User: Fold Kynureninase from Deinococcus navajonensis.
Amino acid sequence: MTQTTPMRPTLDALQALDALQALDARDPLAHKRAEFLLPQGVIYLDGNSLGALPARVPARLECVAREEWGDALIRSWTANNEGGRDWMALPDRVAAKVARLIGARPHEVAVGDSTSVNLFKALSAALAAAAPTRRVILTDADNFPTDLYVAQGLNALMGGRYDLKPVPVADLATHLGPDVAVVMLTQVDYRTGERLDLAAVTRQAHAAGAVTLWDLAHSAGAFEVDLNGAGADFAVGCGYKYLNGGPGAPAFLFVAERHHAVPVALSGWMGHADPFEMAREYAPAAGARRFVVGTPMVLSLSALDSALDVFGDVDLAALRAKSLALTDAFMALLEGVPELTLVTPADHARRGSQVSYRHPQAREAMRRLVERGVIGDFRTPDILRFGFTPLYVSYADVYHAAQAVQDVVRELRG
Amino acid sequence: MTQTTPMRPTLDALQALDALQALDARDPLAHKRAEFLLPQGVIYLDGNSLGALPARVPARLECVAREEWGDALIRSWTANNEGGRDWMALPDRVAAKVARLIGARPHEVAVGDSTSVNLFKALSAALAAAAPTRRVILTDADNFPTDLYVAQGLNALMGGRYDLKPVPVADLATHLGPDVAVVMLTQVDYRTGERLDLAAVTRQAHAAGAVTLWDLAHSAGAFEVDLNGAGADFAVGCGYKYLNGGPGAPAFLFVAERHHAVPVALSGWMGHADPFEMAREYAPAAGARRFVVGTPMVLSLSALDSALDVFGDVDLAALRAKSLALTDAFMALLEGVPELTLVTPADHARRGSQVSYRHPQAREAMRRLVERGVIGDFRTPDILRFGFTPLYVSYADVYHAAQAVQDVVRELRG
Assistant:
């Protein structure tokens, strides 16, 4: 899986729909597709932006609304905790499910709030964990904008104490001086799909005395992440992309156990050691639960909880193998199309679960693709982005999507 | 409505169930009860903690899950904005519905995140709006704990720059010196149900040169609030109490237009002027939209959106009149019960929409009441709390609830 020489099937073999259908026939994850409600006539290659609807979610929402909220009302906060349904413990139960996917222990994960708010929590905690003399926050100049905005807002609130330094990710090493407090990176670039070696970069940052903060927005649920194996410090991730938790689903925060004693900047009652004691002084709950802030959004959180059960029987190595095979196939089928400039690394180790191309008329090309039922997305200025979610994208989908891309590119050429 | 001499029907009249049923028969809000799904055999007096389920919400959730998420997928972010359904504008549409209830203009309200997170946004903004030489945050020592925790966490993050001063609310005036930056108060005390005069306290704070931050958790949807009429500066409120938005529903933030230029501490991409421009520098959106941070939790936010439609035809003066009549009746029916010490003001102007009593065995008394289907709640150390939500609580409910309270108190006496 981590070889650096790409192994790609030949174009000839892949061009045959038969060959791809044969891959579907022996796909160990093929049965997972039936666990999603996908619209007819659509090939959905945008699960990296919004994961598809797991079939089990509508019934769970109905139950949470009518039974837990409507019938049990306020009693649902504490009732039925043996049955694993009490709302007070819901954030912890969801955290445990996320933990398995990212190589964390359950008490190192807190679920709730948006990714942006979690970035704020994580960065303030990471800065508190760093040596106080260090004043640089090192980040990727091409990081997802909200990561940069959150750092800008937090730094201004702290009186401009830090120097936020966005640099090209390739030059990171040269900037890792003794002034760096936190290295804040997104593991998979949202535009190019390039994947960083989380363990290697973490080692590098630690060797330079810095604390790491990883944004796993395009990692969690796309492939296995091993935060503790890598010795990572802090991480955040998104609930609504590869975790399929629904639009704007609650996000997660990882705080390695050794950092649990840092001050909690967003200190709310649901992260208090005893919320209903109604004490005047904040006293943090045990573990990462202290990073839960206000009352959890139970409807959205229950959808995520239910969606995560889709991963219950999924072997993450098989998930990664299929992701690479799907993206390999797509890249092979579009190789040599002159208008398309591949920006996703061919090297498996450096690839996430998406394939992106530059195209001079990318916005219009994507509009036409969506019209044909092939849903990927456009990212400014000229990127066609296609996400491959191994739980519900088939090899045959790859074939038909590539055909549609070729057709649209040909049309625009004429 | 604001007379200071309480006008309460006599005990004799109220003791008759007939009399109360007659009030139900001419209640202009009686038809609203059918818009909620209430469990059989329950009198629900805890809508001040978790509002009941509006009947329209399950269908809306089903539609959002199956159609907007499942079928339209990523297209729902922008599709159908003429139909008022695009997710990008959903926070703004909900904000407009909240604005009407609190005397704000739509562009002064931002909806999303928990109340605690909104307190953090509001307090950081209020401190930025205050004169920089002022270093005291004045608050009620009996404020809801999360309000205190959030202030503690924010102040620590800002290097302990401020002095958080919790004082008895009755002594507020004596502490309103030239050092006070922000007066942060909850309008209705969550334990006693005592209501502060928002306009008078705001005037007092302004006269002392301070900025006001109001927590409307037990105000919004319980009675009409007129923030702009009072010249209020900042406010937050809860979506899941009197607004019936569901467990942990998104909360709201009010920022008076004159303060819109303050720096945004929690600056995320959904509050950016052009989120999909993917610019590296944060540039705030127009109005209070800048206080939206990350991707909105669409499922929870849609439930709140739908729940707010219940208020569409509600006259807020009639709502307040019924709230006072319900609480008057309850207080009258329990007058003279020796174990019950009323802690809610009899004065209409000083009363929210709840009635609270101290009782030496309050926890056990509430347990027995809930067992009998009368759901209020216990608040430490010895408070029995009963919330009266005029949209779905009837006068007959008041009678039966008071009977149950008398029975339980009698049992515990024996």
About this structure: The two ends of chain B are 40 Å apart (CA to CA). The first strand of chain B starts at residue 36 and ends at 37. The CA atoms of residues 288 and 353 of chain B lie 29 Å apart. The first helix of chain B runs from residue 11 to 15.
